[in-house]
Amino acid sequence: QVQLVESGGGLVQAGGSQRLSCAASGLTLSSYFMGWFRQAPGKEREFVATILGSGGVTLYADSVKGRFTISRDNAKNTVYLQMNSLKPDDTAVYYCAAGRSGYYRGQKSYNYWGQGTQVTVSS
Questions:
Q1: Which residues are within 8 A (CB) of 66 and not within 5 positions of it... i.e. 6 or more apart?
Q2: What whole-number distance in Å separates Cα of residue 62 and Cα of residue 74?
Q3: What is the C-alpha to C-alpha distance for residues 90 and 63, in angstroms, rounded to an integer?
Q4: Which tens digit of pLDDT belongs to each residue from 26-83?
Q5: Beta strand 117-122 with 10-13: parallel, antiparallel or unpaired?
């Protein structure tokens, strides 16, 4: 059974940093591209970042480019999202997801999803 478990969310002040982790079980992480998505209150879930299986290629939403960094440790079956210079607009539930094929930014390309972790950025 595949499980993705996010952790590291919480309350942080604007300008601060936070690192999210996504621990995967039941799958070989290196065979998947891994993504982070987020959903703010009253808004649709949106793409944040993705990293390919080898870890050599990363893509980011324009809204987080230069502030967030996605990385992976295939040996630990874990994906990370380092978030710096956080803004109140970054407040959302953050989800990690695993996909095998398709458009990296598209939610339908991802086969497995975690339950999400809340990140709240106070002004």
A1: none
A2: 26
A3: 9
A4: 998 888 999 999 999 999 999 999 998 776 799 999 999 999 999 999 889 999 999 9
A5: parallel
